[in-house]
């Protein structure tokens, strides 16, 4: 079949791929461009190169506080939703459960209702219970949203899991906890790392739930939202956005490098 | 779970509970599931129940009149503006979904069938633009379409226009373009996965039996990739139909969607019960649209296959 032809063979498909990539990259590339532009108006023509917005970014306590809040919430959400997802994934892959289908659908509900409805339902409940809004309420809502993602990632890692490994450990006299720690955990670890990364990312960028469920402590998306109304604040926000982008690029490259190294080690150590 | 606990012998319940735990898969499974289910009951089932209840109450300044009333639902159907905006939102995000999926399909096909090595690199390449904050990605379109934006400056420099075009931003089309861009990766990935799963020998068989490339695509590749197309459509349609960030940033007055109405009921307009009723109606309408869509794709698959 067509398997022998190289992918760069010039034809309609390649042209389409190039246009498509341009479409998804082009708008986003203007963001870092304007973070180096010395005019405080985000408009053409460009003026001159400057680093002052990066300087302003590092010297903006409210922005850094919002960043810190987002990191804090993201870390807690990543841990909580990965634990909840892990328990659910383990239960659903290890045991034959009556009502498995409905349980899965129930856990997936946060994925299939628009976020704004999730947000206002939680807002109503929280206000009826007289619980004050804080970063904790934001974290709680993010954990709900992230649990189905964590569960999906972990189920796909666990589906091929050989239960006889656990049974062997139990037969050899390990207790349930040690079996989990020394047998199950190392095998599922890549899934756990993937789940932590994914849920942190979702929480870090989540705006709608945070908008309705936070009080005075802003998360980063809320800070960005409020600065989009003040044109003078935008260049520093673009500087921060560009910095975060570069950091995530390195994190993903590092994760991919680790993964490849892991694959190589697995294939060379011949057990 | 219920069945296994009722079949347990009642006479020696002290010992049998422990034994039940060890022998019944269902009990152990549900014990393991209980923290997750409890969190979701608290944070999902209860809030939705409260939302439903609130939709039958009435706003009374800063408080609610807590007696059953259909007033909000009657309001919704009497003031045509809400229904109109709901229908407009569904039409807009339906078009966004259609455009996103149609544009994503050839790209996913390219990666699945043309790229032999390092497919992961290509997938990462697709997702890189989406590592930027969602709000900034939407803002980027303001830069593209704005008065002094990329398109206007470009056209001016090239001499096609003398004054910037003002109709580019703040309209439904701007909202739809921005949404189609913002959700592109969510369409490509599921379609790619379903294309990648297709057994290549099926395609060779179709070609060997004398079908041409187009018929092979329509009768083999497309039906087999339908699960991915369906997943992609839902992943784009559900979040975009309730979005209010994009309409408020690039939509202008003509581009508002039902999410903006719901948001204003919980903000400036301060009518939570009406907001709750609009949410309930929107949710039911979206669920109906999704059922129709799934039914439609099912019958398509049966007809083709």
From TrEMBL, chain B:
<keyword id="KW-0472">Membrane</keyword>
<feature type="domain" description="ABC transmembrane type-1">
    <location>
        <begin position="86"/>
        <end position="293"/>
    </location>
</feature>
<dbReference type="Pfam" id="PF00528">
    <property type="entry name" value="BPD_transp_1"/>
</dbReference>
<feature type="transmembrane region" description="Helical">
    <location>
        <begin position="120"/>
        <end position="140"/>
    </location>
</feature>
<comment type="similarity">
    <text>Belongs to the binding-protein-dependent transport system permease family. CysTW subfamily.</text>
</comment>
<keyword id="KW-1133">Transmembrane helix</keyword>
<protein>
    <submittedName>
        <fullName>Spermidine Putrescine ABC transporter permease component PotB (TC 3.A.1.11.1)</fullName>
    </submittedName>
</protein>
<dbReference type="GO" id="GO:0055085">
    <property type="term" value="P:transmembrane transport"/>
</dbReference>
<feature type="transmembrane region" description="Helical">
    <location>
        <begin position="37"/>
        <end position="58"/>
    </location>
</feature>
<keyword id="KW-0812">Transmembrane</keyword>
<feature type="transmembrane region" description="Helical">
    <location>
        <begin position="274"/>
        <end position="295"/>
    </location>
</feature>
<keyword id="KW-1003">Cell membrane</keyword>
<dbReference type="InterPro" id="IPR000515">
    <property type="entry name" value="MetI-like"/>
</dbReference>
<feature type="transmembrane region" description="Helical">
    <location>
        <begin position="216"/>
        <end position="238"/>
    </location>
</feature>
<keyword id="KW-0813">Transport</keyword>
<feature type="transmembrane region" description="Helical">
    <location>
        <begin position="173"/>
        <end position="195"/>
    </location>
</feature>
<dbReference type="GO" id="GO:0005886">
    <property type="term" value="C:plasma membrane"/>
</dbReference>
<dbReference type="InterPro" id="IPR035906">
    <property type="entry name" value="MetI-like_sf"/>
</dbReference>
<feature type="transmembrane region" description="Helical">
    <location>
        <begin position="92"/>
        <end position="113"/>
    </location>
</feature>
């Amino acid at each position: 079949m067509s398997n022998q032809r190289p992918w760069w063979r010039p034809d309609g498909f390649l042209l389409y791929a190039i246009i498509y990539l341009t479409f998804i990259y082009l708008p986003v590339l203007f963001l870092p461009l304007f973070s180096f532009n010395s005019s405080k108006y985000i408009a053409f023509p460009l003026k001159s190169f400057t680093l002052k917005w990066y300087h302003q970014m590092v010297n903006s306590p409210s922005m850094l506080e919002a960043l810190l809040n987002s990191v804090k919430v993201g870390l807690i959400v990543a841990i909580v939703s990965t634990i909840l997802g892990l328990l659910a994934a383990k239960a659903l892959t290890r045991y034959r459960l009556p009502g498995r289908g409905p349980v899965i659908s129930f856990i997936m509900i946060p994925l299939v209702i628009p976020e704004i409805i999730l947000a206002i339902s939680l807002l109503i409940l929280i206000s009826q219970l007289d619980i004050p809004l804080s970063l904790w309420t934001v974290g709680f809502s993010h954990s709900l949203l992230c649990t189905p993602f964590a569960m999906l990632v972990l189920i796909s890692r666990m589906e091929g899991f050989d239960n006889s490994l656990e049974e062997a450990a139990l037969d050899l006299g390990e207790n349930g906890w040690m079996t989990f720690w020394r047998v199950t955990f190392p095998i599922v670890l890549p899934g756990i790392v993937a789940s932590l990364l994914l849920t942190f990312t979702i929480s870090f960028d989540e705006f709608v739930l945070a908008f309705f469920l936070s009080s005075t402590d802003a998360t980063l998306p809320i800070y960005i939202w409020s600065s989009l109304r003040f044109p003078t604040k935008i260049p520093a926000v673009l500087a921060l956005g560009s910095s975060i982008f570069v950091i995530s690029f390195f994190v993903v490259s590092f994760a991919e490098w680790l993964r490849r190294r892991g694959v190589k080690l697995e294939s060379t150590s011949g057990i | 779970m219920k069945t296994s606990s009722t079949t347990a012998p009642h006479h020696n319940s002290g010992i049998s509970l422990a034994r039940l735990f060890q022998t019944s898969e269902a009990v152990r499974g549900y014990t393991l599931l209980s923290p997750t289910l409890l969190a979701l009951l608290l944070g999902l089932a209860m809030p939705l129940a409260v939302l439903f209840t609130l939709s039958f109450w009435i706003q009374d300044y800063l408080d609610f009149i807590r007696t059953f009333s259909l007033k909000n639902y009657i309001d919704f159907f009497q003031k045509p503006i809400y229904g109109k905006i709901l229908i407009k939102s569904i039409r807009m995000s339906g078009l966004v979904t259609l455009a996103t999926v149609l544009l994503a399909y050839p790209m996913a096909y390219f990666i699945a069938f043309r790229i032999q090595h390092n497919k992961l690199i290509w997938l990462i390449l697709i997702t890189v633009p989406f590592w930027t904050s969602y709000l900034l990605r939407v803002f980027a379109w303001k830069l593209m379409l704005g008065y002094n934006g990329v398109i206007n400056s470009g056209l001016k420099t090239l001499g096609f226009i003398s004054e910037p075009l003002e109709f580019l931003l703040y309209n439904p089309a701007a909202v739809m373009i921005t949404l189609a861009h913002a959700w592109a990766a969510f369409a490509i990935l599921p379609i790619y996965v379903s294309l990648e799963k297709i057994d290549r020998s099926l395609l060779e068989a179709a070609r060997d039996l004398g079908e041409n490339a187009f018929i092979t695509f329509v009768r083999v590749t497309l039906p087999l990739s339908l699960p991915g197309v369906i997943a992609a459509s839902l992943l784009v349609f559900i979040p975009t139909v309730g979005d209010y960030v994009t309409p408020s940033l690039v939509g202008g007055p003509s581009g508002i969607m039902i999410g903006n109405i719901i948001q204003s009921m919980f903000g400036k307009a301060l009518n939570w019960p009406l907001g709750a009723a609009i949410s309930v109606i929107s949710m039911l309408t979206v669920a109906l649209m999704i059922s129709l869509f799934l039914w439609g794709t099912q019958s398509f698959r049966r007809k083709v296959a």
